[in-house]
Amino acid sequence: MAHPNGFIDLRSDTVTLPTPAMRRAMAEAEVGDDQYGEDPTVNRLEALTAERLGKEAACYVSSGTMGNLIAILTHCGRGDEVILGDESHIFWYESGGAATLGGLPFNKLRTDRFGMLDPREVADAIRAPRPGYPRTGVVCLENTHNRCGGAVLRPEQLRQIADVAHERGVPVHVDGARIFNAAAALGLPVAEVVAPVDSVQFCFSKGLAAPVGSIVVGSRDFIQGVRANRKLVGGAMRQAGVIAAAAIVSLTEMTERLPEDHARARRLAEGLAQIDGIHVDLETTQSNIVIFRPAADRITSEEFIAGMAEDGVKISNYGLRGLRMVTHYQITDEDVEKALGTARSLMEGAAVPVAAAVAK
Ligand SMILES: Cc1ncc(COP(=O)(O)O)c(C=O)c1O
Q: Which domains does the chain show, CATH number per domain?
């Protein structure tokens, strides 16, 4: 495939460009004022999404970060505590929005290798009503899990967390930025994956290739609150049908092909694992994300990234967790082989530490 950026871009699936079908749909979209509820394309997107996810209603928003923020604001009252994983996107990369804008402190729990929280730790973290304790407002999960290498939570795992939360009257929100990747990896309808939880945010602008937008789904009452909070943070839109039209194409044309991205990520992970000096957790590589670590005593992350970029392959840095490659519809089998070839040459060129060489 010709690369629109001029290089093989494995940094993220957010780099995907709108498909020709999306551009046509955008040009032809019927629009109206969405704040009066009069944009027919937005209304259609919201209805289609709610039906597909098996929830009562949906609200279209401009980004995943906004979707998570306003879902959390809607579940919580000021001062409530948000339980979430210490490796979650909401904690790491969303500006602490719920805490800074909502006055909602975070209670971080340990995330296991597969992106799961321990239900016993969740049960223990949910606050009893007692002076001095904040009220627990919501428990957040992430599926697929970005920092855990795209690991997928099964519906029964969501159910385990939902059971302990619901028993104490606490709702569960899923940051499902890549929920269709989770459904594809599990081979299940997406509605089945999210059935145990109260709300979900997912992104059209990642592997589903739309240029903009995410959506929040949940009960009718909850979504009414989400709409109010979308307005509060300045996210209510007008003729948003122009972008929602592309999101409809995401839903109708882009979900079925996600297994292709997963197969390419698998090939990447297995190829990397065969390179001397690279470590990959093959067990957690379950969707379109590959996190791996080149041996730090042979090459630094910065050197590895620069070496790949010099050969026309861009990847991203996840600090101590390692380096990340993400497959998406602009990445072909040839791109994967090229990335592996470059990684192999880089490691072959990186000196083996003297002590290790002697030991051999
Ligand atoms: C797991 C996860 N949640 C939320 C988001 C936020 O989405 P956005 O970049 O649209 O704000 C991302 C973005 O990469 C993500 O990976």
A: 8-13+257-349 (3.90.1150.10), 19-254 (3.40.640.10)
